[in-house]
Amino acid sequence: MTHPNPTDEKPWLDIDRKPFIKIRNLTKKFGDVVAVDNISLDIYENELFSLLGGSGCGKSTLLRMLAGFEIPTSGTIEIDGQNMLAVPPHARPTNMMFQSYALFPHMNVAKNVGYGLRRDGLQKAEIDIQVSEILELVQLGGYEKRKPSQLSGGQRQRVALARALIKKPKLLLLDEPLGALDKKLREETQFELINIQETLGVTFIVVTHDQEEAMTLSTRIGVMDIGTIAQIGEPQEVYEFPRTRYVADFIGSVNLFEGRVIKDSPNKLVIESPDAGINIHVPHGVSCSPNQLLWFALRPEKFEISVAKPKNVTNLLKGTVEDIAYLGGQSVYLVRLETGRLVRTVRANRDRGAEAPITWQQDVYLTWARSAGVVLTS
Amino acid sequence: MFFRILSVFGFFFLYAPIAALVFYSFNASKLVTVWGGFSTKWYGELFGDPQILGAAWISLKIAFISASISVVLGTLAALIMVRFGRFKGRTLFSGMITAPLVMPEVITGLSLLMLFISLQGLIGWPVGRGLSTIVIAHSTFGLAFVAVIVQSRLVDMDKDIEEAASDLGARPVRVFFDITLPMILPALVSAWLLAFTLSLDDLVIASFVAGPGASTLPMVIFSKVRLGVSPDINALATIMIGIVGLGIFCATLVMLRKSSREG
Fold this sequence. Notes:
By secondary structure, chain A is an alpha+beta fold. Chain A folds into two domains: 236 residues, P-loop containing nucleotide triphosphate hydrolases (Rossmann fold), CATH 3.40.50; 124 residues, CATH 2.40.50.140. Chain A has nine helices and 20 strands. In chain A, the strands form four sheets. A six-stranded mixed sheet of chain A has the order 6-7-8-3-9-10, sandwiched between helices. In chain A, strand 1 and strand 2 form a beta hairpin. Chain A is globular, with a radius of gyration of 25 Å. The longest helix of chain B has 34 residues. Chain B contains eleven helices and no strands. Chain B is globular, with a radius of gyration of 22 Å. With 263 residues, chain B is mainly alpha-helical. Chains A and B meet through strand 6 and helix 3 of A and helix 7 and helix 8 of B.
């Protein structure tokens, strides 16, 4: 077996690759409200792309413009080289799975799922075969005659997915596909969605507000903030190398220390942070003007927390444990620094009943590797 | 306790006259208010009266046709108001659609009469007044009721469902017949029944726009009662109560079945 070419798995790294979806300067206004603000975005074939953002950030509006339900105020959308602006929803090569599932309440499961094929004028026998195939795929074989009102939430979600997939669209749009499911079911379904996407080779665009969901599902994530895309990247990239404080804070949790550069050399950067009460050492330079205000962002799990004072470390904070949240697999410690700042740290509970457990009001030391954090300028 | 007495009084005034009317329709005596034993002879007499049977047939015809026209036009109006977004003059349009609901019937009747007369002078249609003019008049106010009922149903209906159909390849007309129509059908049925009963009830507007040979049942009853109440009118009223009651019962049943299916 030959090793796959890295740009086959990550087409966005290949500058010669033609994007499957090309969005250019897309803007949508509702009256004076700008829902989508001059977005340009390339999505490639077979991607599972997530649009992640809080409510009102314009992610659903962007999705609805791709489906054709909203007409852009300005800008263009191209799917597979074809300009979509003049194409009505019923003629687009896309299908959508709605957040509300939008099942037809007066039709049974088979009729719901086969609706798209009937509109294409297929023979009944052919439709029946395809319907039972796709229901098999979403593990709903035998449910053909049920009405939507007789199904559970998870089953409805599968019917909606099957109905959107049966026409084998080039592009499947999913609006909060797992939003209505409970946590356990959501986790199972996430992996199922990935399997289905890989089996059928359809390009997925998923809108979600759940960062965990976006991380699990996606090849790439576009983090949206009030109508614009704050950052696009692979899940790991967005998590470990956020570009702005908004992204760092939205994806996972983060400790931000405000500070100014006091020493800038090619292999070392020292930030004076009154927030942390120490000088923070970072291994490589950042492009910024001298004395510029910036932020050092550190994820809770990057801290090493200890009771005994560690030796030979550059970055060391001292504080008191103020609160502990035991989550089973890990514990969250909220540590109050001497400067008054509250710091969030996470430690995996590797041992059962560790010999020297950290408790409330205990003095602890926090350290981290020099390269563990990110310096943000905006 | 006070409210219980109040509601007993209320219901008494509402239903006692109707109960009395039904009761006396089975009176053998010719005197309306004197009980002379049980008899169904007034029902027999009623069905032997060609004038009343003719008027009843005309009323049913008018009610059927005008209710059907109202449902078609009223549904279109409701669709425009709910599904076509904010167009210029939308507020004026919706106000004008619902105006007949609050317009005094005398004014509606009179203005329609004047419209028909001047139309006849201008374009030669409608020739005289009769069944067709009553149908037109009843359709106009029936439409207003239908538009209000269908509009509220459409507002409740999830727009996603229609969008899903169009997303799966259905053109707008197809979406309407495949999705919208089946989903608002219960509202259409009850709107039709309401328009039907309203048309069957109407005396004032019909009196204005009716012509010779097109007297509706309420018109015939009214002219008969002016000459004194006869027991056969009681019988007729009982039958009408039965029909209207059945209509309301059916409408309620349709709405209940719908809500239990969706719930």
